[in-house]
């Protein structure tokens, strides 16, 4: 699913983003990537999404050889993943339904399919009742659930959540993690990046801790040991 073999990323100014990282994440895992600011978490995600290319090493994601892929293959890679951002990135002048539907329209999904899939994912995140609401009429937690529905609607095999609870009230943060957990239970791989130790301490998932561009620790999923 995701494999890094001796991956280093050196930025043009000489700063190391990652140093000789090797790690493997299997299909169906739910992994937290933990680390303080500047640790290398974003670099890790950018390499997975082919937003940055490694200076050395090999990266494989969803059967794509990301480290040596051609630019024209990148859209195919991106379509195999759903991405959730800290700042939601909803389209402000579209209602909830259209924000989710838009993700399908851009991939040319037929309207008939769209009418089944959008309500299906809105139901999954508990927002069917808010389908006609505009993003500004929703709480932060609800906006993040819309973003999650949008990430899911193309049926990606991998969801990448980049600090998804960073702009949400602490009480609602667990709700988002629980939702990711239920999405994971139906087979989607989840990679959630965070610096919130307190939040993830309550969960038994695998935790990959990154510091200074290297993997400081890799705690296995306690449910499977
Ligand atoms: P995190 O996401 O954990 O905060 P980053 O991956 O953003 O960490 O950063 C890792 C290191 O790489 C930091 O020292 C950061 O300053 C550096 N870095 C990140 N992006 C760039 C860039 N475009 N150019 C130079 N250095 C960068
Ligand atoms: P069925 O078994 O009749 O397909 P489901 O409840 O599994 O019913 O799915 C209802 C609709 O939602 C189907 O069109 C299905 O393809 C679609 N669907 C299922 N999972 C997802 C998903 N993760 N994202 C978007 N659409 C989905």
UniProtKB/TrEMBL annotation:
Organism of provenance: Neobittarella massiliensis (ex Bilen et al. 2018)
Quaternary structure and interacting proteins, as annotated: Homodimer. Forms a membrane-associated complex with FtsX.
Family recorded in the similarity comment: Belongs to the ABC transporter superfamily.
GO cellular-component term (any): plasma membrane
Function statement: Part of the ABC transporter FtsEX involved in cellular division.
GO biological process annotation, one example: cell division
Alphabetical keyword list: ATP-binding, Cell cycle, Cell division, Cell membrane, Membrane, Nucleotide-binding
Annotated localization: Cell membrane
The ABC transporter domain, residue ranges: 2-225
Name of protein: Cell division ATP-binding protein FtsE
UniProt GO molecular function: ATP binding; ATP hydrolysis activity; transmembrane transporter activity
SUPFAM superfamilies reported for this sequence: P-loop containing nucleoside triphosphate hydrolases
Membrane topology classification: Peripheral membrane protein
PANTHER family per the UniProt record, alphabetical: CELL DIVISION ATP-BINDING PROTEIN FTSE (PTHR24220:SF470), IMPORT ATP-BINDING PROTEIN (PTHR24220)
Keyword hit for Cell membrane: yes
